[in-house]
Design brief:
The chain is 40% helix and 16% strand. It is an alpha/beta fold. An eight-stranded parallel barrel has the order 1-4-5-6-7-8-9-10, surrounded by nine helices. Bound molecules: the ligand NCc1[nH]cc(CCC(=O)O)c1CC(=O)O and magnesium ion. Its EC number is 4.2.1.24.
């Protein structure tokens, strides 16, 4: 599209507005504030437990008591929500991930503790079986290791309802089974949870950028050399993402997610412009790890590329961003306002 009133140089000098900070601010087309951030956290059993994740410098797994302390800072910083990822021991895992819908499971207890301590902080839960299966797949497998769709959906429904029963504000199926949003929505309605939001990981790609996350939740070891190609999307596809998102919206999703982030911003842009629904993006563990590695080597300015990467997601059309940088970015924004 040509500019509606094309004018020639020197009547137009595009550098004029860039000449001062005040005019750069006035013509800035996109904003990034703490309102746009969601903080993913890894939850551990026990008390006063804090474990570093080596492939994610600066990220720690926390026991519920320490997570509750962290939640106070999130509220103070103006971050609207957390996304919980439980880390359970191998003894609690089995072939079908039955610990996932235990009403007193780690995620369910974490939800209750957070909602009690910080009622205004939105709590999102991950609906998928991978933290709870011995094989590390997101669903229940047959003898050949194929993840069974409809059997898995039944398990996911139990998991999602148990999260809502515990007080989760948003359940976020990240499993990529077909039909799970409709099934979860129906069960939530039947259970009276009419305002529980569903954030559907609608276009989740079979990405190698998830490596550090699998270290963090301890699903990597069991997972070994297998992959998730039979349910997560092929990175070569883009129309298919529109199809996935449209279906999840039709099934009752309130918000949709594109994942990973920076390598998939074309998808974020298409989804937002074509479907016009609340569109979130996940800056995943591998993206975080790359930024941190470059920063620690002195190769990139960490704060600057962090903010640039987040703004790029906003510019592409993301309404909110799940990012391990949420706290660091919100602290930086607070300090810059002072
Ligand atoms: N349900 C699995 C899940 N939920 C979030 C992530 C990745 C998040 C990240 O890399 O930060 C994954 C990884 C996977 O599909 O194996
Ligand atoms: Mg789908």
């Amino acid at each position: 599209m040509p500019h509606p009133t094309p004018r020639a140089f020197p009547a137009t000098r595009l550098r004029r507005n860039r000449a001062s900070e005040f005019s750069r601010r006035l013509v800035r087309e996109n904003q990034l504030t703490p309102d746009h951030l969601i903080y993913p956290v890894f939850v551990l059993e026990g008390e006063q437990q804090r474990e570093a994740v080596p492939s994610m410098p600066g990220v720690e797994r926390l026991s519920i008591d320490l997570l509750v302390e962290q939640a106070a800072e999130l509220v103070e910083l103006g971050i609207p929500a957390v996304a919980l990822f439980p880390v359970v021991s191998l003894e609690q895992k089995d072939l079908s991930g039955t610990a996932a819908w235990d009403p007193d499971g780690l995620a369910q207890r974490a939800v209750r503790a957070l909602k009690q301590a910080q009622p205004e902080l939105g709590v999102m839960t991950d609906v998928a079986l991978d933290p709870f299966t011995t094989h590390g797949q997101d669903g229940i497998i047959d003898h050949d290791g194929y993840v069974l769709n409809d059997v898995t959906v039944e398990a996911l429904v139990k998991q999602a309802v148990s999260h809502a029963d515990a007080g989760a504000d948003v359940v976020a199926p990240s499993d990529m089974m077909d039909g799970r949003v409709a099934a979860i929505r129906e069960a939530l309605e039947a259970a009276g949870h009419v305002n529980t939001r569903i954030l559907a990981y609608s276009a989740k790609y079979a990405s190698s950028y998830y490596g550090p996350f699998r270290d963090a939740v301890g699903s990597a070891g069991n997972f070994g050399k297998s992959n998730k190609f039979s349910y997560q999307m092929d990175p070569a596809n883009s129309d298919e993402a529109i199809h996935e998102v449209a279906m999840d919206l039709a099934e009752g999703a309130d918000m949709v997610m594109i994942k990973p982030g920076m390598p998939y911003l074309d998808i974020v842009h298409r989804v937002k412009t074509e479907l016009k629904a609340p569109t979130f993006v996940y800056q995943v563990s591998g993206e975080y790890a790359m930024h941190m590695a470059a920063e620690q080597n002195g190769w990139l300015d960490g704060d600057a590329v962090m903010m640039e990467s987040l703004m790029a997601m906003r510019r592409a059309g993301a309404d909110a961003i799940l990012t391990y940088f949420a706290v660091r970015a919100a602290r930086l924004m607070r300090d810059q306002r002072r």
